[in-house]
Amino acid sequence: MTRAQIGLLGLVVALAGCGAGTEGHLPPGADHAGEKGEPHAGPGEDAGHPEAHGEGHEREEVALTPEAMRSAEIRLVTAERRPLSGTLTVPARFAFTQDGVVKVGARVAGRVAEIPVRLGQDVRRGQVLALMESPELGQARAEYLAAAKRAQVAETNLDRARGLVDKGISAARDVREAEADLAEAQAAVDTADARLHALGLSEAEVKALKADEHFSSQFPLRSPLTGTVVQVDATLGESVEGASHLFTVGDLSRLWAILEIAESDVARVRPGQPVALTVGSLPEARFEGKVDYVGDVVEEQSRTVEVRVAVGNPERALKPGMFATAEIAVGGAPEAPTGAPSAVVIPREAVQAVGGEAVVFVAVGPNRFRPVEVEVGATTASEAEVRIGLTGGETVVARGAFILKSELSKESMGDHDH
């Protein structure tokens, strides 16, 4: 951030120190490591800047106007006494979910007559992917119409037999025979109906069949899934067998991340744990999910277990087959025997490196912050453990701490110019 940008934020530094010396201020050319929020290992490691050590930072305060607080998007958090949240970093790859991909086949031998969709097109469930021509379909339609006609005649015969029994003209045995004929005819209709559905006709298309209409031997291949056509193996005019796969439709809005967990770490992973994923081709993006399933089989060669994580993909930035790095929040170390955590935990971005020291900005009043030197212990991708400097319960700056660090460094270097 340039001096002009900091000036636009309206940052004002109030120096609360009462000494005339320069103890605690950064000299020109001081160490600027950690400008991206990486915590320093702890006090005393930067022997090149001995003048930056001591209690000089404790006597400085950085004050912001309310407008600057809003512009800088300062976010405050409370330092907590709790175990550090542990993470497990493992490789991953993205894939379709189990119910998120389907291969569509011809079901019966025939010829591809029409392909109304293209590769990459979004389709709805039930949408026609191709029209097939098959003599088998024509025979199935004829059998259905014949069975429907026989059932209609059988129903008429049953009604007539019942009428004759009511008039005493016919015996009850004739009614029973007519009922048996109708049941047999209806069974034939049901069988023919099921065959038409198996060939891809919808209920509406079956009901629309009429004996006085001319029907071709065409039948539709429909998508059983709402998604995207990700593979087309059909060719117009091609003759295919019933077992041929012609299309693949996948739901890209939700994918699985397949994680490979070492056998020695699998006991730390449980369903429901949060997972953060990053992809090399999308360095600025971070995808969130939760452990959905922990595998029950150890792969013999790699000695790893597959773990599945459901990940939302509304923008379709992720693609099946992509590789990723996954960080699983597996929990921290156990508490001390007394039940009290051994350290204070704050966001990692709250720790700034100033003059070779790890510094945290603590709120001391409305829009006023004091830099406090801390000793940092273990860290994760998002949290840092503070061993010395905080006792827990302090309000510290998380997002925006680098802006305060930059202004503090600018003013400190400016003091040395006098």
Give a quick rundown of the structure.
The chain is of the alpha+beta class and 418 residues long.
Outline the secondary-structure elements:
Blueprint: H1 3-8, E1 11-14, E2 61-64, H2 66-72, E3 76-78, E4 80-81, E5 87-96, E6 101-105, E7 110-114, E8 122-123, E9 128-133, H3 135-166, H4 172-198, H5 203-207, E10 218-222, E11 227-232, E12 239-240, E13 245-250, E14 254-262, E15 274-279, E16 282-298, E17 304-312, E18 323-329, E19 344-347, E20 352-354, E21 357-365, E22 368-379, E23 383-388, E24 395-397, H6 401-416
The Cα radius of gyration reads 37 Å
Percentage of residues in helical conformation: 10-25%
CATH architecture of the largest domain: Beta Barrel
| Low-confidence runs of at least 5 consecutive residues | 1-56, 333-338
**Shape, principal axes of CA atoms:** elongated
The SSE order reads: HEEHEEEEEEEHHHEEEEEEEEEEEEEEEH
Secondary-structure-based class equals: alpha+beta
| Strand proportion | 25-35%
Number of helices: 6
Oligomer type: single chain
Biggest sheet details = 8 strands, antiparallel
Q: Can you count the beta strands?
A: 24
Structure description:
The chain is of the alpha+beta class. It has three domains: 3-86 and 336-416, Beta Barrel (conserved putative lor/sdh protein from methanococcus maripaludis s2 fold), CATH 2.40.420; 87-98 and 252-329, Efflux pump adaptor protein, beta barrel domain (Elongation Factor Tu (Ef-tu), domain 3), CATH 2.40.30; 101-250, RNA polymerase II/Efflux pump adaptor protein, barrel-sandwich hybrid domain (OB fold (Dihydrolipoamide Acetyltransferase, E2P)). It has helices at residues 3-8, 66-72, 135-166, 172-198, 203-207, 401-416; strands spanning 11-14, 61-64, 76-78, 80-81, 87-96, 101-105, 110-114, 122-123, 128-133, 218-222, 227-232, 239-240, 245-250, 254-262, 274-279, 282-298, 304-312, 323-329, 344-347, 352-354, 357-365, 368-379, 383-388, 395-397. Strand 21 and strand 22 (368-379) form a beta hairpin. Helix 3 (135-166) packs antiparallel against helix 4 (172-198). Residues 1-56 and 333-338 have low confidence and may be disordered.
